[in-house]
Each structure stands twice: as structure tokens, then as C-alpha cells.
Amino acid sequence: MSGFAVVYNKKDRLELESMFRLIQHRGPYLSGIFEDKRIAMAQNYLIGDISGNPDAVLAGGDTQVPAFNATYPELRICYDGQMGNWQELAPAYKIPDGPFREERLLLQLYQNHGQSMFSHLNDAVFAFVISDGENLFAARDLLGIKTLFYGWKNTRLYFASELKSLVEITDDVHEFPPGHYMDGSGTLFRFAELPQSPPEIIKDDPDEITATIRDIIQRSFNNRVDFNVVTGSLLSGGIDSSVIAWLASAAYKEKFGNEQRLKTFALGVGESEDIKCARLMADHIDSDHHELIVDLDQILAVLPEVIRCLESFDPSLVRSSVANYLISKYAKEQKIDVLLSGEGGDEVFCGYLYLKEFPTEELFARQMECIAFLHNNASLRLDRMNLCNSIRVVTPLISGELLNYAMTLPPEYKQKPDGDHKIEKWIFRKAFENELPEEIVWRLKQEFSQGSGSADVLPIYFEEIFEDDELSAAQTDFPMVRSKEELYYFNIFKEHFGSGRAIDTVGQWIRL
Question: Which residue from 41, 160, 171, 464 has the least number of CB within 10 angstroms?
Fold first, then answer.
């Protein structure tokens, strides 16, 4: 989760520096600027974002960024991403290990395959810009897990990891659509899209399926987590974060010794459900557990900064982001460089409670609809609330292999009928029921904001500070504002990003 800014066509160093200054938090460890012909590119990195061994950079390795492949030194890449299939691709393309290995591999793929390179990136999340000084090639992954924006001013084209960099320069701003690439003319081309119909359903029995799920998740974890920098794990006490913390604790003890304890972090508004369940799970895995207990006043105090960093006013997203921001900030104070997260489990295994309202035959279509919301909603929280505190977050459940496999599972295994009810993520729970406490495995799904308690206190508070006619007046000009709570967030958003095209970049969740 590094950051970058790019100016293309009539490059302007001062504009680039102005844009880049606003995302310093995304990479205080290492940064650089490259200029050539029509391009100016700026890249920064957190210590955990230098793919390969970051210690090699400290030891005097090549620190030129934006990165390049020595075989094609004219090509430079600005990149934010993570490749789950690095170990599989690197030998095939003769890419040695070391700093910036993913960047070097991407440049090799681009050199060899051009716009067809994406067929090799089905287990990667990414946003990048590649240029030889004259030409340009920019892209964003299919799910939009990595954030990217672009904008225009006259004939000049701008790219940045965060919206705030662009509104500094121009009002003509846009979200870079997921699953697309762009050439130097500014034309967008789709390279992938979510499936419109389900694949063939596998016939394996549940025991075979759960074994495969465990195997895929373990492999995804191993490919993404190495503990080369100080690493901790978020732990809400839900099934997703508990599985990741369980895997991480075992790997941590294996690497550093059985007496060593992984740091885990939980947040709650008072004695919330998350706090209680996280304690139970922390005891189960013998982690060095940290709790942050907050109240309404602390939440209200950070809301303006959360919305500025988040670049959204969606109520559901803001509520969960407040909790994420506070626990990430706390983890940084504990010297953590990388946080592990269970993000992605609800999208992969149909965990959202509203999905229970639909018949089984609709589940696949609704799952794809849910995944399509990621790029300008949940992905922002994942990115912004950690990066604003200069922490990298790693999400082993966001895996192309895992998603592709889960789509082949019978829908009734993801939303399991149980009398008059359904059990969400049933097959995922079954996969780990012998490893985790029963209270964790079968705990009802709650959004981060619900489990932590922020979803309870914020809507009530804003209902009392706005009059009905204030909301009605705002909706006359901005009909997308759906509640008094959202109006409060929207007003803060406008202060930072204006009321023009920046509003169009905001994704709104289907439920308040």
C-alpha cells in the first residue's frame, strides 16, 4: 500500500511535488521522483511495501524509485499492489528475488505481453502506471482493491493514489474504473469483468471442500506474510479476523519460537461484543492482546480527519472507518509496520446479512453485486484508514484463487438453510470449526461498526443535532444525501473536496 502521483503530457515538476506532498503518509520510508520527456512520476513506500527484502535497501541496494527492470532501464513503474502468485511467475520470467521484485516482474510482463499481461495477474491486486517517457500505460485490478484516480487539465493527464492529490490541481477528477487500462490518449479499455453467470458447481462433499478451503487460505497466507517487518493482526472476534489471527499466531511462533506472542488489536465502544469475543480468541491463540476502548466523544473528535483521509461520506463506511482509524493509529503507536486483516471473507463467502433476504438462485448475482461495490466503498477503508497512519495492511482472504474456488461452491453452502433462518458463510465456518472456539465459529456476522459499537452511537447522535428541514433543504441540491448522519459527513467532505465531480467518485452502500 504505497502511493504515487504522475503528470503526463507537458510534465510539470511543481505540480507533481504539490500532489506528492499530500500523500507523504503513504510512504515515509522511501520516495523518489523520475522525469523524462513527457512524464513526471513520483513514488513512495512504506517499509513493508518494498516487495522482496526491505533490509536489502537499507544495506545499500538499488534505491532508485520509481522502480525499473535493469533489462529495460527506459521503462519506469509507479506501483501499489500485491501479487499472490509471485513465486509461481518469477522463475518463469527469470526475475530474481530482492527489492522491488513485483515491480520488476510487472515490467517484464508488460515488455513481453503488453496489454495481454493481465491474464497473468488473476491473483494480484494492483494500481500502476508504466512509462518510457513518451508512452503511458495505466491499470487497476478487477476488484478495485487498490485505489487510483485520474484527472485532466487542458491536455495534461494526472494520476494519483488518492483523490486529495488531484483536487489540488484540477476539478476534472475521476475514479479510475476497476478492470481497465488506459493509454496515453486517456482512452480506457476494459481487460476483465465480473462473471455474469455462475461457473459449473462442483460436486465434492463438504469434507473435501473444507480441506480445499483451508489449503487455499494457508497458501495465500504463506505467499503474502513473511514477518520481515514488525507485524500484528487486527482481531474483532469475528470468524474472518479470527482465522487470520490463528494462522498468523501459528506462523509467528514457528518463526520466532513458541514463547513468542503475536500482537493482536481490538477496539470497542465500551464493553462491545467485539471486545469480548476478541479476548476469547486472543486467549485461544496465546497472543499479546491489546484493547482500545473508546467513547462517543473520542469518535466525534476524529470524524473530520477520518472523512478527509477516507474521501467518502457514506455512513456505513464512515462508521466502520472510524473504528479502523483509531485501532490502526493505536497499533502504529505500538511500533507496528504491517497489520493483518480478515477483510474479504464476507465478499468471498456471502457473509453480509442482507443476502439472506434473497432466494438461493439469486445468491450468485447478489454476490457479484456486492463485490462490485468494493472499488469505491470498502476498499477505501482498507486502504485509507491504515495508510493515513503509515501502516500497511495485508489481506490473505482477498485472493483470486480463493474467490474463483468459492464461486464454484453450491450457494446453499455459503448461505446454509437452517429452519426459518440461514447461516451465512457456513462452509467457511465448517472449514475452521475444529480450530477455533465454538463461540467464535458460529458468532452471527456483524459489520466492524456494529461489533465495535460505532454503528449504535453515531446515527442516534446526528438525528438529534439536525432538524428535518435542514435535511430536506440539503436534499434539494444533493439528492444523494439520505440521512442526517450522512449530511454531517457530506458537509465535511465538501470542505475538503468541493461539490463538483469529486462527489461522483464516492460509492454509497445499498443500506444505511
Answer: 464
Identify the burial level of 234 via C-beta atoms within 10 angstroms of its C-beta, where 0-12 means exposed, 13-18 middle and 19 or more buried: buried
Bond before 177 cis per omega within 30 degrees:
no
- Backbone dihedral angles phi then psi of residue 182, each to the nearest 5 degrees: -135, 140
Distance, CA of 354 to chain centre? 22
Q: How confident is the model at residue 448 (pLDDT cuts 50, 70, 90)?
A: very low
Separation of alpha carbons 215 and 335, rounded Å: 31
pLDDT category at 52 given cuts 50, 70, 90 is low
The full length of the chain comes to 512
Q: Write the pLDDT tens digit of every residue in 6-44.
A: 999 988 899 999 999 999 999 988 999 999 999 999 999
- CA–CA distance, 103 with 105 (Å, rounded to integer): 5
Q: Please, which pLDDT band fits residue 372 given cuts at 50, 70 and 90? A: very high
Listed in sequence order, the residues at least 6 apart from 334 whose beta carbon sits closer than 8 Å to its beta carbon are 232, 263, 265, 290
Q: How far apart are CA 44 and CA 50, in angstroms?
A: 10
Look up residue 221 and give its amino acid.
F
Measure Cα distances from 480 to 41, 466, 467, 475, 492 in Å.
35, 17, 18, 7, 15
What band does 459 get if pLDDT is binned at 50, 70 and 90?
A: confident
pLDDT at residue 366 above 80? yes
Note the pLDDT of residue 328: 97
As to burial, measured by CB atoms within 10 angstroms (0-12 exposed, 13-18 middle, 19+ buried), residue 335 is exposed
Find the helix or strand (DSSP H, E) in which 441 lies: helix 438-441
Angle at CA of residue 140, ends 61 and 2, nearest 5°: 35
Mean pLDDT calculated for residue range 358-387: 94
- How far apart, in whole angstroms, are the C-alpha atoms of residue 427 and residue 456? 30
Chain-wide mean pLDDT for the chain?
93
| Cα atoms found within 13 Å of the Cα of residue 488, Cβ hemisphere only | 19
Report the C-alpha gap between 448 and 129 in whole angstroms: 33
Quickly tell me which residue has 477503508 as its cell: 381
Q: DSSP for 233-259, please give it.
A: EE--SSHHHHHHHHHHHHHHHHHH-TT
- At residue 450, the 3 state secondary structure works out as helix
Q: Which three cell numbers stand for residue 453?
A: 459499537
Are the beta carbons of 272 and 123 closer than 8 angstroms?
Answer: no
Domains of the chain: 3-190 (3.60.20.10), 206-459 (3.40.50.620)
422's grid cell = 440461514
Average pLDDT over residues 474-484: 95
Cross-strand partners of 416: 423
pLDDT of residue 58: 52
Q: Are 508 and 480 in contact (CB under 8 A)?
A: yes
Q: What is the DSSP string of 332-363?
A: HHTT-SEEE--TTHHHHHT--GGGGGS-GGGH
The pTM of the whole model exceeds 0.90: yes
Other Cβ atoms closer than 10 A to 134: 11
**Strand-pair category, 188-190 with 136-140:** unpaired
